[in-house]
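Fill-in record for tRNA methyltransferase 10 homolog C.
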Amino acid sequence: MSVFLKMSVSVTLRPFARFLVPFTLHRKRRNLCSTLLHRCMSSKIPAVPCPNKEGTSAPEQLELDGWKATMKSSVQEAISTGFSDKDEDPLVATRELIEMWRLLGREVPEHITEEELKTIIECPSKSSKKKYLKYLFIKENLKKARQIKKEMKAAAREEAKNVKLLETTEEDKPQNFLFLRLWNKNINSAMGWKGAQAMQFGQPLVFDMIYDNYMKPKELQNAVSQLLESEGCNRRNIDPFHIYFCNLKINGAYHRELVKRYGEKWDKLFLTATEKSYVDLFPKDDIIYLTADSPNVMTTFRHDKIYVVGSFIDKAMQPGTSLANAKRLKLATECLPLDKYLHWDAGTKNLTLDQMMRILLRLKNSGSWEEALKFVPRRKHSGYLQVSQQSRDFVNKVKKAKTFNSFPKGSLNVHKRDNLNEKI
């Protein structure tokens, strides 16, 4: 009978076991958690002496504020002991975070410098940090690809050289020639001599370096690349400018990037880099600020003036920045006559720094706008404006008048009479 009752109870309770088992498990877990919490709290919370029953009343207990203060102090001590190393050096923490992201497969660079780490720390949001890390990742991959391509070209060149050496005979060997070979060392010394002469007697050309706060790091790097191209183009020219880098802050963004690019050659360049403004170095009446926003159009190149070019890449579309700076200093401003000579299609009339350098050098040497404006990119215009027939006729008349006036009066008739007498 008892066996029958047990079987009936098990049969009746079996459908409800599915719902009863979780409750029992939750109770066990709750009891286990409460015991663990009790043990942890008892070990962490400092012992509080019990008040004397004789000296104090029965309802007196530990105050809530005191208990909170002790708990907060214990938690802060635990946090400080656990994370003291990372708080002291945030660069190490940032580097570890980047390494963790790299192991997770995110687009972060493998090698990163301390300057780049400081830039990441200064980023205001997490999304800006991710964008900057992605930019560094793409830059590193491009650098690796260029290095691999360079090594492949060097290997192919070496292989071709070995094949050519095997195929050459005694007759094909190089022989002595009449002309002297110009080595790179001699060419560099000649260019350096021209640069030294330009520093003493050349016309000054100023690059205004005050716009480093208006650009992002990538734009500033592009501006420095254009400055390097401009300096090289000026150094190779027949009659170079005396380049001035004015308003260049020592240990500023521009100065750090220039020193990083040039390296040891920075102190050997034939140019003047100074923290002073061009207003302090030259008289204001001789300065002309070249800006695309100026209402005054440049007609001719003046050799007695000092031209200022703002070293500013305006991808964020901030029109009028350089013009406002020139107006604040009360300087004369001019812009290139692009609409006068070119069919302008689309886009802003802002040119790069190396394009401006080539245009000014060509104007200085030849004085021809048609030759100078060849350095304007073809994607921005559809060709030169056609000169009207009337203006051509006028130019031809002026040329003929100059040629006829160059001969003295009656000289042509005298020659004709002499020729007739000889024939007779």
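KEY FINDING: The CA atoms of residues 48 and 62 lie 8 Å apart.
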